[in-house]
Structure formats: structure tokens, C-alpha cells
Design a protein that fits this description.
With 224 residues, the chain is mostly helical. It has helices spanning 2-36, 39-70, 74-107, 118-139, 142-150, 152-172, 176-211. The protein has seven helices and no strands. The longest helix has 36 residues, at 176-211.
Length: 224
């Protein structure tokens, strides 16, 4: 029975990682479609979200099956419920990537109001947080997960700076089309800030799975 249970746990983790890889790729492609103004790439991100949603349902069913049939003890139950919550965070990552892709389609081939330098930089940090949080899950590495949580402030600061810049542009621009694009870019920045938040959530859940301790990024003392 224990061997079968551990096999199911490994399968659960494999499916979570596959789903996470798909979400990470969706984020990368969504930002690239915005940079290159590639409508086909943006459309592929939107279409791919359905597969992530299907994977979420399968993972949820497996988690419920493990809880109902195996009656796991405290440590194993913590792992299963942690995986279930991580699955939800990953599904949200894919949704956020879809939101960015929709903006890329909306902007289309219109001239960009500013060089896209800060948005891809934010995206790189957020993507690395997603990747590192999933690596921490595989390694059951609470220290690596804490390091992910501590990087969330960097993305928040970048978002604040970009928000101020774009709001200034919105208030001073005389072109309604430029204002619309500035609002769209501000929306993209917000999606990236939320991606970093969900990566942080995954890292916090890894810490809980490994140590049994609940931590919150807005309570730095819990990350020590």
C-alpha cells in the first residue's frame, strides 16, 4: 500500500511540474508576442490555456483520490494539500499569461509608445521566481523557497516605478490611442506583479510542506 501511495505522490508531482512548465512557457511566449508584436504567438498562448485548465482538473481529482482512499497521515496530508494549492497558483499563472497575450493582440502592429525594456526585465524576474519555486518543490528545499519569497519586493518596486511613469504619460498625452496603449502596458505590468505573487505563494507552500511552518512575505520575520 505504501509503495502504491508513494508512486501516486510521484505522479502527482510530475503532473504539477508539467503544468508549471506549461505556465512558464506561456508567460515567456506572451511577453515575446508583445515585444515582437506577433499575433500568432499571442493567439497560441490563449489557445494553450485550455490544456492547463484540463490538467488542473486531473490533478485535483488525483489529490481527492489520494486523500479519500489512502487516508494520509499529517506529513503526507500536508504534501497533498500543498500540491493542490500549488496547482491552483499555476492555473492562475497561465491565466495571467493569457491576459498579457490578449493585450498583445489588442495592440497589434501599432507603434509602441515606449521601448519595451522594463516590462521584459520584470517578466524575467517573475519567470525565474516561478522556475525557482518549482525547483524548490522538487528538491523540498525550504531555504531556496525562502529566497524566492524575498525577491518579491524587487518586482513590486519595478511595478511601482513603471506605474508612476505610465500614469505620468497618461496624464500628459494628447493622443487617445497612446493613452489606451499606456493603460494596456500598465495592465501588463500588473499581471507580471501578480505572477511574482503567485510564484511567492508556491514558495510559501513549499516551506509549509517541508517544515510545517506557515510563512508570509508581508511578515518578513517568518522568513528567517
Amino acid at each position: 500500500m505504501r509503495a502504491a501511495f508513494e508512486n501516486d505522490l510521484r505522479r502527482l508531482q510530475t503532473e504539477i511540474l508539467k503544468m508549471g512548465s506549461m505556465a512558464e512557457t506561456a508567460i515567456a511566449h506572451a511577453i515575446l508576442s508583445l515585444q515582437t508584436q506577433d499575433g500568432k504567438l499571442a493567439a497560441s498562448v490563449i489557445t494553450g490555456d485550455d490544456e492547463v485548465d484540463r490538467m488542473e482538473l486531473g490533478i485535483e481529482e488525483l489529490c481527492v483520490k489520494l486523500i479519500a482512499l489512502q487516508q494520509p497521515l499529517a506529513g503526507d496530508l500536508r504534501v497533498i494539500t500543498g500540491m493542490l494549492k500549488i496547482c491552483t497558483d499555476i492555473e492562475r499563472l497561465a491565466d495571467l499569461a493569457t491576459n498579457v497575450a490578449e493585450v498583445a493582440l489588442r495592440i497589434g502592429k501599432a507603434p509602441l509608445i515606449k521601448p519595451l525594456e522594463d516590462i521584459p526585465e520584470m517578466a524575467n524576474i517573475a519567470q525565474s521566481m516561478v522556475r525557482d519555486s518549482l525547483n524548490a518543490l522538487v528538491a523540498r528545499d525550504a531555504a531556496a523557497a525562502r529566497a524566492v519569497c524575498l525577491r518579491d519586493d524587487e518586482v513590486d518596486q519595478m511595478y511601482s516605478q513603471l506605474h508612476a511613469e505610465l500614469m505620468e504619460f497618461i496624464c500628459s498625452s494628447l493622443s487617445s490611442k497612446d493613452v489606451e496603449q499606456a493603460v494596456d502596458l500598465l495592465f501588463v505590468a500588473r499581471q507580471l506583479e501578480r505572477i511574482a505573487d503567485h510564484a511567492t505563494n508556491i514558495a510559501e507552500r513549499v516551506i509549509y510542506m517541508v517544515t510545517g511552518m506557515r510563512v508570509k512575505t508581508n511578515q518578513p520575520e517568518t522568513l528567517k
